[in-house]
Design brief:
64 strands, 25 helices, 11-stranded parallel beta sheet, leucine-rich repeat, phosphoprotein, Leu-rich_rpt_typical-subtyp, LRR_dom_sf, disordered C terminus, protein serine/threonine phosphatase activity, alpha/beta, disordered N terminus
Length: about 1400
C-alpha cells in the first residue's frame, strides 16, 4: 500500500463535474435510449421493464467512462452485449445517468466535498459487501477539468490491469496521505487496498467500510491516479529545462543563440545545439558560484561558476515567472557548501538523466522514493564518486549489488527496505564508516563484513537478530552498535567484553531477561548502555568499569549492581528496586533509603529519586541536581558545609520545615520546589544584612504558609517566578512586594486575599499574574505594567474595573470569568477589543433545556499556555446535547499545533450526533474514525490526542438512567470520581505506558528513536491525524462505558501535561469539595504548573448530581419512580400544573398539524403554536432522565376525548387572534381536549397499594389536589388490563423554568392574568371557536397520554373506575377475553 513518510505537501483535491463532451453519451433529461457512446463501443440502450437478473459474481465489474463522468460497465459472463434488450446495458445507462446527476450536484474543489455516489449506485452496492467504488483522478486533479475524475464501480477481486484496460490507460497509481505516489502492479486490487486500509484504521463492519470507501473525503488519505501526478514545485527542484537565448562570457563578443538549457543537480547544462539530445554539453558547476539578474536585458540571468577560472552564461527567459523560477532554484544551489542533492520524497522511480552530468555530487539523498534496482535510470547508473547515499524507505526488497561498486562511499543508509540478507559483495565497501540497516528483516551478517575495517557505526535496530552478531568482534574500529527492537533474550557480557573497541551499546525494546557472564574480566571500553523497555529482574554490570551512563527504565529490576567509579548518570525509573540494591536507584521504585556510600561517586552530578518511599536523605550531598519529590521525607539533614546544589525538588513529601541554613549554605541554588508539603514557615535567606541568594524560581504551592512568610521572600531579590497558590494568605504586604523588582510571574490563587497591593506597579518586569479563587473586590493596578501579558482574576468578587486610557500593547489574555457581580460597560469592552483573549461571564438564558440539564451536571474549563507562546489545547463542553437531556465533553491536545484541536472542537459533536443516530454500539468508535477522515489535508501532517465523554439517557435500561461513554486516543484522559475515589476511564496510548502498542509498532518495523518517539515525531501510538505515519499511528480509540449512579460526584478531563504532574487521587481530592467547577478546573491547572509543568495544560471539571432531588419532569401530582424503580416523593417540578393557579400546559405526542393530517383536515400554522409567554413553540412533554417514559410492558398510551359544551370562549373572542391552548381542539360548539395519561413506572404491587391508599383516603379541597388516572391501552389483542387510579398532592415550586410564567400572553399581544384556581374546564373554555379548525375526529392511538381530572369531577370518574374494578374478576377467569371498546368516552 505504499510507504508512509514525510513528503513535500498534501495532494490535490477533487474537481467539479462538467457537462459531457461532444460525442459522449448524453446526460439524463434527453433521449434515454438508442444512443451510442464513443468509448470502447459501449452502447447505452433503452431498457424494457424486465425482472432484474441475479447479482454478478465477483470480479465482473470494471471501470469505464461515459459523458465525461464516472460510469460502471458490466462485463457479462461471455463478455458480449446481448443487444438492445439487454437489461445489463440498460442498468449501466441508468447508473451513468445517476452518476452524472450526482456529480453535478455534489461537485467540489475541496476535499470536504460529499460523496458522488447516487441512489442507484448505492442500491447496487448494497447487493454485496464485496462491491464498492474507487475514485480515479487525472494527472493534476487540482487544476484540470472534472472530466479527469472517474468513479469506477468494481469488486474486491477487480485488478488494476482491468481498470486500466477499460480506462484506456497504461498504469494506475496510488497515493497515500497526499504524499508519495507509487505505481500499482497489474495484479494488485484497488478496492481491496481501500478496504484493507479502512480495516487498518479500525472499521469492523463491512457495510460501513463500503460506505466509507464511497466517500470522496477519503481521497485525502488514499487516492488513485490514472497518470502520475507531479507538482510544478517538485519538478523545479528536480529538473528545470527549456530552449532559451544563451550568450557565453561576460563580454559581448559572443552572440545570442538558442540553446537547450538544463538546471539539474548542482550544475547548469548548456547544449551546443538547439536540440539538447545532440551535440556537446557544456557543464557549469554552480556550488560556490553566483546567479544574478541583468539590468540591461529584461528577464535575463547571469550564471557564474566558482574559482579563479570562472565562466559565465547569460540566459534570457520569455516571461517574468519563468525567470523567477530559475533564479529561485539556482540561488539554492549556489548557496550550498557541499555538493548535496536532495531528491527525497519525490516518488521517483529512476534517477533524472541529467543528474549524471553533475560529476561533483558527493551527497545524494533518495529517501522515500521507489527507485528501481535495475534498468535505465536505476541505481546501477549512480555516480561512482558518491561519498554519502541515503536509500531508506524505497521498497527495494533486496540489497542493490551495484552499490558495492561505489568504493568511495563512507556513509550508506538502506533502512526500511525489507531486506532479508546482505550480499557477499558488501565487503568491497572498504571506505564505509557508517552503515544504517535499521527496520529490515535481517537475522545475520555475512562474514565478508570483516573487511570493513573503517566501520565505526553500525545500525541494526528493528531487525530479527537473536544474539549479538559475532562479526562485530572483528570490526576493530566499531565504537557504536545499535541493536534496539530485536529479539535478544540474553545479554552475553562475555561476547561484549571481547568487543573491546565498542563504547556505546543500544539494546532497547528487546526481550532481555538476564545478563550472563562466564568470566569476571572487566570491560574498559563501554561507556554508554541503553537497556530500556526489557524484562530484566536483576542486573549486574559491575564488569563495566568505565560505564558513565546507564538507562534501564521500565524493566522489572529488583537488584542492580554497578561500578560507580566513572558513573555520571543513572536512569532506572519504573522498576521494583528496594533498599537492598547494591548501588542506588532512580524514580518510580520502592527505595526506602539511600546508602551514605552513594555519595562517593564523585562524578555524579544528577540524582533523581522521585516516586520512591524515602524516609530520609544522607547528610553528605555533593550534587548539582537533586530530585526527591513524591517520597515520605519528614525532614532534611542539616547543612554544615557549602554545597554546589543548583536544583532541589522536594514536592509531595511530609516536610513541615526546611533546614535553617538551606539558603545560606546552598548559595548556588536557583530552583526550589517545595509544593504539596505541610510547610508553615520558611528559613531566612541570609545571616547578615546583605543577601547572597541566587534563587530565581520558588514554588511553594499547596502548603500551610501564612502572611508571616512574606518578609522572608524579600531576602531573595533575584526571584523571577513565585508561586504561593493554595496557602493561607490573607494579605500581601505592599512594602514587601515593592522590593521584588525582578518578578516576572506571580501566582497567588486559592488564598483569601481581598486586594493586590498597589505596589505591584513597581514590578516592571511582571508578565503573568494569576490570582483566581480569592476574595478580591478591587481590580489591581496591573494595566500600567509595560510587559504584562496574562492576567487571571477569575472566581473573585470584582464589581468594577478602572482601566487606563491606553492598555499595554503586550497584553494578550485577561480572564475575568466567575465574577458574578462584575458588569462591563460597552466602553470598557471596546477598550478590551484588541486583546487576543478576553474571558467574561455570559448571562445564562433561562430556557427549559438549560434548567433541565443544569440540575444534573455543570462544568468548568481551564486552559493555560504555560511558557509557550500559543495554546494548543481546545475543549468541547455541551451541557445540553441532542434532546437536551444529554451532554458531551471533550478535550483535544495538538502538542505543538493548534489547528487540529480547534477543528475537532468544532466538528466532533456534529459527527457524534450523526453516528448516534446510525448505531447504538459502535457510535463512539466511528465518531473518532470519521473525525479522523474529516480532518482532510490538515490531518496529513498534524496530529492530536483526544478524549470524548458522552452522557446519554439510557431508555432501554430503566435501572440506569444515565450512562457515560468515554473514548480516547493519545494521552488525553478522563477520570470519574465515585464515592470519593478516582476511577480511570481512559487508556494512555504511548510507547512508555502501553506495552501492547509498543509491541505492535515494533512488529510493523517502525523506527523508535532514542527519545521514545515513532519515527522521531510523537510518543503517541494512536492519534487523530498524522495520517502519513500510517499504519503505525492509528485513530481507533479505546472505548469504555459505565452507568452513572448517585455515588458519582464529578468527571475530570485533562491533557497529557495535567496527568503527568497530578495523580488521579490527588486531582480528585483537590476539587471534590469545591462548589464552583470553574474554580476547580483553575485549581487543577495551577497545581500542575506549580508541580513543574511548563507546557500547555488543560483541565475540565464536570460536577455530576444524579439524584432524585433533581427531578425536572413537566408533571406534578404524580408519584415518580426513582432509579431503582421505587417511587420518589421529593420531586422538583419544572413546569406548573393546571391546578396550581399559575400556568397550564397540555402536551401531546402529536402536534396539531400531525393530527389534522391523519384525519384529513387542514390546519394553519397559527393553530399549532401556543405558549404561556407567547414565544415558545409547543413541544413534547419533558421528562427528566431520572424518570424516563416507562416501557410498553408497564405503561401504554390510551387517548380519550372529553367533550364539553361551549358556544364561545369566556373572554368573548370569536376570532383567530387568540391561540388555542395546547392539547385543546375545537370544533364548532364542541371542545375536544386531548390529555395525557401518566402511569407510575412501578410494578403491579405498587399500583395495587396506591389504589388501596386512594380508596381509604378522603378528597381534599379543590385547589390542593387532583386525580390522576393511570390507564392501560386496551385493544382487540389484549383487553385484560384494568384501569386504576391514584391521587397525590402537589404544590408548585418556583424554578428557572417557571419563574416567568405568571401570565398568559395571547397572540394579539394582550396578557390575561391567571386566577388562583383554574380547573380543566376553565382552561378549555379559553380556547376560541375555529370555523375552519379541527373536526371531531376519533382519538388517535399514541404511546402516552395524561388525564388531569379536576376535583369536581372526581366522584363521577371514581364511579366509573369502581365499575371497572368489579369487572376485573370476571375478566381474569376467561382465557380469551372479549375485547373492550377501542376508545374511552369518559364523561367528565
Amino acid at each position: 500500500m505504499g510507504e508512509a513518510g514525510p513528503g513535500p505537501g498534501p495532494g490535490p483535491g477533487p474537481r467539479e463535474a462538467q457537462e459531457p463532451e461532444e460525442g459522449e453519451a448524453a446526460a439524463p433529461g434527453g433521449a434515454r435510449g438508442g444512443q451510442t457512446g464513443p468509448r470502447g463501443g459501449i452502447r447505452v440502450l433503452k431498457v424494457r421493464r424486465e425482472p432484474r437478473p441475479p447479482p454478478l459474481r465477483a470480479a465482473r465489474w470494471d471501470g469505464g467512462e461515459s459523458a465525461g463522468t464516472p460510469v460502471a460497465l458490466a462485463r457479462h459472463d461471455l463478455g458480449v452485449c446481448h443487444g438492445g434488450g439487454c437489461c445489463w446495458c440498460g442498468a449501466h445507462a441508468r447508473l451513468s445517468a445517476a452518476l452524472q446527476r450526482n456529480a453535478k450536484r455534489a461537485g467540489s474543489r475541496s476535499c470536504q466535498s460529499r460523496s458522488r455516489v447516487g441512489s442507484r449506485e448505492r442500491t447496487w452496492l448494497k447487493g454485496d459487501v464485496g462491491r464498492g467504488c474507487v475514485y480515479v483522478y487525472g494527472k493534476d486533479s487540482a487544476a484540470a477539468a472534472s472530466s479527469d475524475l472517474r468513479l469506477v464501480l468494481c469488486t474486491v477481486d477487480t485488478q488494476a490491469s482491468e481498470i486500466c484496460d477499460r480506462e484506456g490507460r497504461k498504469n494506475l497509481f496510488l497515493q497515500l496521505h497526499g504524499d508519495l505516489v507509487r505505481r500499482l502492479e497489474p495484479t494488485e486490487k484497488p478496492l481491496q487496498i481501500v478496504y484493507d486500509y479502512l480495516a487498518g484504521l479500525g472499521f469492523d463492519d463491512p457495510l460501513r467500510m463500503q460506505e466509507e470507501a464511497a466517500n470522496s473525503d477519503l481521497s485525502c488519505m488514499i487516492r488513485f491516479y490514472s497518470e502520475k501526478p507531479c507538482q510544478v514545485e517538485q519538478m523545479d527542484r528536480i529538473l528545470l529545462s527549456g530552449v532559451y537565448n544563451v550568450r557565453k562570457g561576460k563580454t559581448q563578443l559572443h552572440k545570442w543563440a538558442e540553446r537547450s538549457v538544463t538546471l539539474c543537480g548542482t550544475c547548469l547544462i548548456v547544449s551546443s545545439v538547439k536540440d539538447g539530445h545532440a551535440g556537446k554539453m557544456h557543464i557549469l558547476p554552480l556550488i560556490g558560484g553566483k546567479v544574478e539578474e541583468m539590468r540591461r536585458r529584461q528577464y535575463t540571468l547571469a550564471f557564474t561558476s566558482a574559482g579563479a577560472q570562472a565562466q559565465t552564461y547569460h540566459v534570457s527567459f520569455g516571461t517574468l515567472a519563468e525567470c523567477q523560477r530559475w533564479h529561485r532554484q539556482a540561488s539554492t544551489i549556489v548557496s550550498m557548501r557541499f555538493s548535496v542533492v536532495d531528491l527525497s520524497c519525490y516518488s521517483l522511480e529512476e534517477v533524472p538523466e541529467h543528474l549524471f552530468y553533475s560529476q561533483d555530487i558527493t551527497y545524494l539523498n533518495l529517501r522515500h522514493n521507489f527507485m528501481r534496482t535495475s534498468g535505465a535510470g536505476s541505481l546501477d547508473s549512480l555516480c561512482r564518486s558518491l561519498k554519502s547515499l541515503n536509500l531508506s524507505h524505497n521498497r527495494l526488497g533486496e540489497f542493490p549489488v551495484s552499490l558495492c561498486e561505489i568504493s568511495t562511499l563512507t556513509e550508506l543508509n538502506i533502512s526500511c527496505n525489507g531486506l532479508h540478507y546482505l550480499p557477499s559483495q558488501i565487503g568491497k565497501l572498504l571506505n564505509l564508516q557508517t552503515f544504517w540497516l535499521d527496520g529490515n528483516l535481517l537475522t545475520s551478517l555475512p562474514e565478508e563484513m570483516r573487511n570493513l575495517q573503517q566501520l565505526s557505526c553500525l545500525g541494526l535496530s528493528f531487525n530479527n537478530f537473536c544474539e549479538l552478531p559475532a562479526i562485530c568482534e572483528k570490526l576493530v574500529t566499531l565504537d557504536k552498535l545499535a541493536l534496539a527492537g530485536n529479539l535478544l533474550e540474553t545479554l552475553d557480557l562475555t561476547v561484549l567484553n571481547r568487543m573491546s573497541h565498542i563504547k556505546s551499546v543500544d539494546l532497547r525494546l528487546n526481550n532481555l531477561k538476564r545478563a550472563a557472564a562466564d568470566t569476571l574480566e572487566g570491560n574498559k571500553s563501554v561507556a554508554y548502555m541503553d537497556l530500556r523497555d526489557n524484562q530484566m529482574t536483576d542486573l549486574d554490570l559491575s564488569s563495566l568499569v568505565s560505564l558513565e551512563q546507564l538507562h534501564c527504565e521500565r524493566n522489572k529490576l529488583r537488584e542492580l549492581t554497578l561500578s560507580g567509579v566513572c558513573l555520571r548518570a543513572l536512569y532506572a525509573n519504573s522498576n521494583l528496586l528496594v533498599s537492598s540494591l547494591s548501588y542506588f536507584a532512580f524514580l518510580s521504585n520502592q527505595l526506602q533509603c539511600v546508602p551514605d556510600w552513594a555519595c562517593e561517586a564523585k562524578k555524579l552530578e544528577v540524582l533523581d529519586l522521585s516516586y520512591n518511599l524515602l524516609l530520609e536523605l544522607p547528610s553528605s550531598l555533593s550534587l548539582r541536581k537533586l530530585m526527591v519529590g513524591h517520597n515520605r521525607l519528614q525532614s532534611l539533614p542539616p547543612l554544615l558545609e557549602h554545597i554546589p546544589l543548583e536544583v532541589l525538588d522536594l514536592q509531595h513529601n511530609l516536610l513541615t520545615k526546611l533546614p535553617e541554613t538551606l539558603f545560606v549554605k546552598a548559595l548556588n541554588l536557583r530552583y526550589l520546589n517545595a509544593s504539596a508539603n505541610s510547610l508553615e514557615s520558611l528559613p531566612s535567606a541570609c545571616m547578615e544584612e546583605e543577601s547572597l541568594s541566587m534563587l530565581q524560581l520558588l514554588y511553594l504551592t499547596n502548603n500551610n504558609l501564612t502572611d508571616q512568610c512574606i518578609p522572608v521572600l524579600v531576602g531573595h531579590p533575584n526571584l523571577r517566578i513565585l508561586h504561593l497558590a493554595n496557602n493561607n494568605l490573607l494579605t500581601f504586604p505592599a512594602s514587601k512586594l515593592s522590593k521584588l523588582e525582578h518578578l516576572e510571574e506571580l501566582n497567588l490563587s486559592g488564598n483569601k486575599l481581598k486586594t493586590i497591593p498597589t505596589t505591584i506597579a513597581n514590578c516592571k518586569l511582571l508578565h503573568t499574574l494569576i490570582a483566581h479563587s480569592n476574595e478580591i473586590s478591587i481590580f489591581p493596578e496591573i494595566l500600567h505594567l509595560p510587559r504584562i501579558q496574562f492576567v487571571d482574576l477569575s472566581c473573585n468578587e470584582l464589581t468594577e474595573i478602572l482601566i487606563p486610557e491606553a492598555l499595554p500593547g503586550a497584553l494578550q489574555e485577561l480572564d475575568l470569568s466567575g465574577n458574578a457581580n462584575l458588569v462591563l460597560e460597552h466602553k470598557t469592552l471596546d477598550i478590551f477589543s484588541h486583546i487576543t483573549t478576553l474571558k467574561i461571564d455570559t448571562k445564562p438564558s433561562l430556557t427549559a433545556d438549560s434548567a433541565l440539564t443544569s440540575a444534573f451536571w455543570s462544568h468548568g474549563v481551564a486552559e493555560m499556555a504555560g511558557q509557550r507562546n500559543k495554546l494548543c489545547v481546545s475543549s468541547l463542553a455541551l451541557g445540553s446535547f441532542a434532546e437536551g437531556v444529554e451532554a458531551v465533553y471533550g478535550m483535544f491536545d495538538g502538542d505543538k499545533n493548534e489547528e487540529l484541536p480547534r477543528l475537532l472542537q468544532c466538528t466532533m459533536a456534529d459527527v457524534l450526533l450523526e453516528e448516534v443516530q446510525q448505531s447504538d454500539t459502535m457510535f463512539m468508535s466511528n465518531t473518532f474514525l470519521v473525525s479522523h477522515r474529516k480532518l482532510g489535508m490538515a490531518g496529513q501532517k498534524l496530529g492530536s490526542s483526544a478524549v470524548l465523554c458522552y452522557i446519554r439517557n439510557e431508555v432501554a435500561d430503566p435501572a440506569s438512567n444515565f450512562s457515560l461513554t468515554v473514548a480516547n486516543v493519545g494521552t488525553c484522559q478522563a477520570v470519574l470520581c465515585r464515592s470519593g475515589k478516582a476511577l480511570p476511564l481512559s487508556k494512555v496510548f504511548s510507547l512508555e505506558q502501553c506495552s501492547e502498542e509498543a509491541s505492535r509498532i515494533k512488529e510493523q518495523k517502525a523506527i523508535i528513536t532514542e527519545d521514545n518517539k515513532v519515527n522521531g515525531v510523537t510518543c503517541c501510538t494512536r492519534m487523530l491525524g498524522c495520517t502519513y505515519l500510517h499504519p503505525w499511528i492509528l485513530p481507533k480509540p479505546h472505548v469504555s462505558s459505565i452507568p452513572l449512579t448517585v455515588q458519582d460526584e464529578l468527571l475530570l478531563l485533562g491533557n497529557k501535561a495535567l496527568w503527568e504532574h497530578l495523580s488521579y487521587a490527588e486531582a480528585v481530592s483537590a476539587v471534590r469539595h469545591l462548589h464552583d467547577p470553574l474554580a476547580a478546573a483553575k485549581k487543577l491547572c495551577t497545581l500542575a504548573q506549580s508541580y513543574g509543568c511548563q507546557d500547555n495544560v488543560g483541565a475540565m471539571v464536570v460536577y455530576l448530581n444524579i439524584s432524585e432531588d433533581n427531578c425536572t419532569c413537566e408533571m406534578h401530582g404524580l408519584t415518580l419512580t426513582g432509579p431503582g424503580g421505587f417511587s420518589s416523593t421529593s420531586t422538583k417540578p419544572a413546569t406548573p400544573s393546571c391546578s396550581s393557579g399559575i400556568a397550564s400546559e397540555f402536551n401531546s405526542e402529536l402536534s396539531a398539524s400531525e393530527v389534522s393530517s391523519e384525519v384529513g383536515s387542514t390546519a394553519s400554522d397559527e393553530h399549532s403554536a401556543v405558549s404561556l409567554d407567547g414565544s415558545l413553540l409547543p413541544r413534547q412533554e419533558r421528562r427528566c432522565s431520572l424518570h424516563p417514559v416507562p416501557p410498553s410492558s408497564i405503561f401504554q398510551r390510551q387517548p380519550s376525548s372529553a367533550t364539553f359544551s361551549s358556544n364561545q370562549s369566556d373572554n368573548g373572542l370569536d376570532s383567530d387572534d387568540e391561540q388555542p391552548v395546547e392539547g385543546v381542539m375545537t370544533n364548532g360548539s364542541k371542545v375536544e381536549v386531548e390529555v395525557d395519561i401518566h402511569c407510575c413506572n412501578g410494578k403491579g404491587q405498587e399500583l395495587e397499594h396506591s389504589t388501596a391508599e386512594y380508596k381509604s383516603s378522603a378528597l381534599v379541597p379543590e385547589d390542593d389536589s387532583r386525580l390522576v388516572l393511570i390507564i392501560r391501552r386496551q385493544n382487540s389483542v389484549n383487553s385484560n388490563t384494568v384501569q386504576r387510579g391514584v391521587r397525590e398532592k402537589c404544590e408548585l415550586q418556583k424554578s428557572l423554568s417557571t419563574c416567568c410564567l405568571y401570565g398568559k400572553k395571547l397572540s394579539n399581544g394582550s396578557i390575561v392574568p391567571l386566577e388562583e384556581s383554574l380547573n380543566l374546564i376553565e382552561v378549555a373554555t379559553e380556547a376560541p371557536k375555529k370555523k375552519t379548525g379541527y373536526f371531531a375526529a376519533p382519538s388517535q392511538m399514541e404511546p402516552e397520554d395524561q388525564f388531569v381530572v379536576p376535583p369536581d369531577l372526581e366522584e363521577e370518574v371514581k364511579e366509573q373506575m369502581r365499575q371497572h374494578q368489579e369487572d376485573r374478576a370476571d375478566q381474569e377467569l376467561k382465557e380469551h377475553a372479549v375485547p373492550l371498546p377501542e376508545e374511552f368516552d369518559t364523561a367528565l
